[in-house]
Amino acid sequence: MKSVSELRKRTAFIFLIPVTIVLLSSALYPLISTLYLSLTDAELENFLDPNYVGFINYLENYEGMWYGVLADSLFWNSVRNTIVFSVFSVSLEVILGISFALIMLIENKLKWFVRAAVLIPWAIPTIVSARMFEWMLQDQFGIFNYILIGMGIIEQGKAWTTDPQTSMIVIIIIDAWKTSPFVAILVYAGLKALPNEVLEAGKVDGTNGITQFYYIILPLILPAIAVAIVFRGLDALRVFDLIYLINAGSKDIMSMTVYARREMFEYSHFGFGAAASTMLTLIIGVIAVIFIQRTRLHKLDEME
Amino acid sequence: MADININTVNKYFGDVHVIKDVSLDIKSQSFTVLVGPSGCGKSTMLRMIAGLEDINSGTISIDGQVVNDLPPKQRNIAMVFQSYALYPHMTVFDNMAFGLKLEKRSKDEINERVNEAARILQIEDYLQRKPKQLSGGQRQRVAIGRAITRKPKVFLFDEPLSNLDAALRVQMRVELAKLHNELEATMIYVTHDQTEAMTLADDIVVLDTGIVSQKGSPLELYDKPNNMFVGGFIGSPKMNFISSKILSKSSDATEVDIMGMSKISIPKMSASSSEGDSVSLGIRPEHLVVNGDSDGSWESKVFVVEKLGDVTYLYLEKDGEPLVAETEGHSEIKVGDTVKVGFPAGRCQLFDSSGQAFK
Fold first, then answer.
1. Chain B residues 36-75 within an 8 A CB cutoff of chain A
2. How far apart are CA B132 and CA B89, in angstroms?
3. Which of A62, A86, A234, B208 has the most CB atoms at less than 10 Å from its CB?
4. CA torsion, points B183, B188, B192, B195, in degrees to nearest 10?
5. Cα separation, B207 vs B212, whole angstroms
6. Which option is the CATH number for B4-233: 3.40.630.30, 3.40.50.300, 3.40.50.150, 3.30.950.10?
7. Residue A272's closest CA among A29, A39, A31, A33?
8. Architecture field, domain B241-351
9. Cα distance between residue A225 and residue A183, in whole Å
10. What is the reported pLDDT for B128?
11. In a domain, A43, yes or no
């Protein structure tokens, strides 16, 4: 006769088997095969039968010169771009997301419209929003330049998406426009879950709009914000589509993913590209672990 | 010093008229309990005094100043909520200090006031804990402490004890009574529990569907209910109501019958009543005389016996009219026995068909 808790454990184990199999085959296998590929000299010609070459795809000193991903200034440039993009876009999205969420809370006849409208940018496919912004920012016919010229701020159209000075800013703004709704929905759910009596107790204690937000609402929705930051942060560190669509070749905005893809599929340096991909995974992993530790997100249950 | 004057106040939630022309004068430093069944508007009344609900018409003044349009913080009030409503992310100390911090008081003053409140409520040991680490009773104390530290003129309590278990509720009730004596503040207390109302109040206000049914001291309400609603609401077990008819009227008494079994002359009058009118005779279980002689009587079989130790409740019924009688704790009466209950005329109430009491 088995005890109830043993039976429960066994049931739990059975339920976990399918998802474990799916995860192992869809995540662990590609991860390991990429890791393996990065230690070979695989290119298009010998893809099926590559030679093990150790870590030379990562770093190698050949006749006094350094080679490999870690010695490639373009790689480090892409790391820098990715981090700049992630920090600024996620920060902007959190600020905008909280603002939208607060606006969505306002009770009036238009609330259903506001709630639906907020979601539209999130629903539009990236390819569409990227092309949309490209056209709006186009140097000759774009409405943005037209308005700026009309207002006398600039004299002639500027190619915002290809100009090295502005292209990063442009993709950050497009990304923020597109994904702030995601943050807004998460924060909105957090706001909706706030206990009303606590806010009322605050009013009796003398809070006004600003002090109420700063001392009561913000600390209480911090877990929701942290979740949003983790999701958005990991997404941003892996950003590919938007940058690829706006300007795949520009080193000013090239992200780690775009760099790895170019090595692998444009130059057919599979081993080298796999090494770049592995570095990308490592960097994201380290950042994620540090962030989750710092925000104590894994101890969310114990907070409150 | 803070009198509260409520003058013909009305409140609607959409189309629902929840407070109807309520006028009340609450004396400074009194302990007033708003009591009534759920949905009677008592919490809404309290929230309007707090400034958490708008007032549709009428005025509320605190200390002579009309506060209709003042936010809660300018009304010099503090409120204790049913759910305690502590700030979950702050320590007990910070919970209690929050209002003072917003008022930009000095650190020393905040420390002094919080420690003083903590001492009164015996929560000094928990000051650095978070609300989650406290029991229900401790959280309740913190909620009260948060109210005390700000030294408001008026304390508002919204069913503060209803989330506590029975033993703790009795204990906190006594402490609240003590606190009222110590703080000399005006306290308004909402509850649906008539025991809390009876034990704590200087004045009880019974609300019934948005109307003040009666206001008075606990014993006034107990002895002289204005109407059947108050008669039935105050007292536990409830007052018995028996349908009856007026047999005759004299200059200072009304004679009615008791289930055709006996007649009783009750020293109460109503000018609008006349012979033959249907009335309700009200008498509390504790005033019935079991198996003894009294002014009127009725006989019935006993259906249920509840022995509580100090008293025994007998549940009787005759021709569809139920009656609860109280007798001594160690009563020998068993289910199925027939008992005779006596009605002392001086303890009987009469209510006309609209529920208004004879005086």
1. 50-52, 71-73
2. 9
3. A86
4. 40
5. 5
6. 3.40.50.300
7. A39
8. Beta Barrel (2.40)
9. 8
10. 94
11. no
Which chain B residues are closer than 8 Å to A210 by Cβ? none
* CA distances for A219 relative to B93, B147, B175, B237, angstroms: 17, 22, 33, 48
Q: Which amino acid is at B230?
A: V
Element (H, E) at B17: strand B16-26
> What are the sequence ranges of the domains in chain B?
4-233, 241-351
Q: What is the radius of gyration, based on Cα positions, of chain A?
A: 24
Cα separation, A229 vs A210, in Å, equals 23
Residue A214 has pLDDT above 90, yes or no: yes
Angle B64-B70-B73 from CA coordinates, rounded to 5°? 100
Residue A30 token pair:
């590609």
The answer to whether residue A46 is domain-embedded is no
For residues B293 and A147, which has the higher predicted lDDT (pLDDT)?
A: A147
At residue A114, the pLDDT reads 81
Is B50 in Cβ contact with A204 (below 8 Å)? yes
Interface of B with A in 133-152 (CB under 8 A): 146, 150
Q: Which two tokens stand for residue A33?
A: 């095969």
Minimal CA separation from A221 to chain B, in Å: 11
Decide if A32 is inside a domain.
no
CA–CA distance, A102 with A107 (Å, rounded to integer): 11
The fraction of chain A above a pLDDT of 90, given in percent, is: 49
For tokens 């039968």, the residue is A49
Note whether A76 and A226 are within 8 A (CB): no
- Expressed as residue numbers, the domain containing A116 is 69-302
Mean local confidence (pLDDT), B240-256:
90
Residue in the structure block whose two tokens are 């807004």: A184
- Here the tokens at position B283 are 């008498």
Of the candidates B72, B87, B130, which has its C-beta nearest A204's C-beta?
B72
Radius of gyration of chain B (CA): 24
Q: How far apart are CA B96 and CA B87, in angstroms?
A: 10
A16 φ, ψ to 5°? -80, -15
Question: B4-233 with B241-351: one CATH topology?
Answer: no
Mean pLDDT of B53-75: 92
Q: How many domains does chain A have?
A: 1
| A120 inside domain | yes
Write the secondary structure of B94-144 as one string of H (helix), E (strand) and C (coil).
HHHHHHHHHCCCCHHHHHHHHHHHHHHHCCHHHCCCCHHHCCHHHHHHHHH
Q: What is the DSSP letter of B153?
A: S
- ipTM of this predicted structure: 0.84
Neighbours of A194 (CB within 10 A): 14
Handedness of CA B87, B89, B92, B97 (dihedral sign): negative
- What single string gives the DSSP state of each residue in B166-206? HHHHHHHHHHHHHHHHHH--EEEEEES-HHHHHHH-SEEEE
Contact B73 A197 (CB under 8 A): no
Whichever domain contains A118, its CATH number is 1.10.3720.10
- The number of CA neighbours under 13 Å toward the Cβ of B116 is 15
The answer to whether A82 and A237 have CB atoms below 8 angstroms apart is yes
Structure tokens at A152: 């006398």
Tokens matching residue B101: 């911090």
pLDDT for residue A301 is more than 80: no
CB within 8 Å: B72 and A220: no
